[in-house]
Amino acid sequence: MVQTICAEKTVTIPEGVTVDIKARYVTVKGKRGTLERSFKHLFVDIKKVKGKDGEMVKVSSAASKTEADQWQICNTVAQAGH
User: Fold this and answer.
1) Quick check: 28 and 34 in contact, CB under 8 A?
2) pLDDT tens across 21-69, in order?
C-alpha cells in the first residue's frame, strides 16, 4: 500500500464571502453572517491563494490521517457562502 506523503484540499471562495486566516484561526464573513473557528488543534497548513477561478483556500498536511480535518475546514468556508 502506498503511503500519502502530502495531502491537499482546496475550496473556491464564493462571491460575496471574505476569509481571514491567522495562525489556524479562520473567520468567514458572508451573506448569512460571520463564522469563526479555531483549528489550532489540527496539524495542517491553511493558506489563501489566488487561482484561475478566483481566490481559494488551500489546506495541506503531511499525513493522510488528517483528510477528514481538511474537509472540515473546506466545509467551514463553503457553508458561509450558501
Assistant:
1) yes
2) 998 899 999 888 898 989 888 888 888 888 777 788 888 877 666 777 8
Angle, vertex CA 59, rays to CA 53 and CA 65, nearest 5 = 140
Each residue of 25-57: b (16+ CB within 10 Å) or e? ebebebeeeebeeebeebebebeeeeeeeeebb
User: Which residue from 13, 7, 2, 11 is spatially nearest to 66, judged by alpha carbons?
Assistant: 7
Order across the sheet with 7-12: list the strands.
7-12, 54-61, 45-51
pLDDT at 1 over 70: no
Half-sphere exposure of 42 (CA within 13 A, CB side): 25
User: What average pLDDT does range 8-14 have in this prediction?
Assistant: 85
